[in-house]
Amino acid sequence: MTESAVEAGSEPTGRARTGSVPVPAAAGGGPVSHAIFRLARLHRMFAGQLLRRIGLHPGQELVMMHLWELGPQRQADLVRLLDSDAATMTRTVRRLEQSGFVRRRPSPTDKRASLIEPTAASQALRREVEQVWSRLEELSTAGLTDEERAATLLALERLEQNLVQAAASACAETER
After folding, report:
1. Each residue's pLDDT tens digit, 153-168
2. How far is the first Cα of the chain from the last one, in angstroms, to the nearest whole number?
3. Measured between alpha carbons, how far is 124 from 66 in angstroms, rounded to an integer?
4. 98, 125, 135, 152: which has the highest count of C-beta atoms within 10 A?
5. Is the pLDDT score of 174 beyond 90?
6. Residue closest to 79 by CA, chosen among 71, 88, 69
C-alpha cells in the first residue's frame, strides 16, 4: 500500500497510484499519511454500516465498551479515556441515553457531577458490539497471515506512539 510512484506506476494524469486511490501530487511527500487517511475513512464507513444494524453510530460503541469494562464513569472521565471533546461526548451520551443504553445518576462523591452508567438493556447490546468488532476485524485483515497481523499491529502502535510524542512535544513548546 505504500509503494513509491515509480513502483506503483502512474496514472495517465501523472498522479501516483497506491491501493485503489490515486495519490495526488500534493500528497507525494506523505504517502503513509495519505494511506492512513484513506484507511481510516474506509474503516469508519464499514464500522458505521455494521453499527447501524444494531442501532449505534461510530464512537458510541467505544463509550459502551468502556462503561461495560469500567462501570459508571463521569462524563469528563469518558472524554479523557476516549481522547474526545466535551461537546462530542455530550451528544454521544445524550443519544445513548435516548436509546436506553445509558442513564445518568448523581455521583455519590461529587454533588456537581453525574455518573453515566450502562443500563440492563445495553447488556444485550454488548454481544452484538463484540460481533460487529469481530466482523470489522475480519474485513480489515482478510488475507493476512498471523505474522502479518502482528506486524501490522506493531507498526500501527509505533505510528500512534510517534504522534503521541509529537503532540506532547508540541504542547510543551506551546507552554514555553
Report:
1. 999 999 999 999 998 8
2. 39
3. 15
4. 125
5. no
6. 88
Q: What is the DSSP string of the chain?
A: ----HHHH-B-TTS-EEETTEEEPGGGTT-HHHHHHHHHHHHHHHHHHHHHHTTT--TTHHHHHHHHHHH-SEEHHHHHHHTT--HHHHHHHHHHHHHTTSEEEEE-SS-TT-EEEEE-HHHHHHHHHHHHHHHHHHHHHHTT--HHHHHHHHHHHHHHHHHHHHHHHHHHHHHH-
Amino acid identity for residue 167 in this structure? A
Cβ(149)–Cβ(141) below 8 Å: yes
List the single range of 5-14, 54-63, 127-136, 161-170 with lowest mean pLDDT. 5-14
Neighbours of 4 (CB within 10 A): 10
Find where cell 443519544 sits.
95
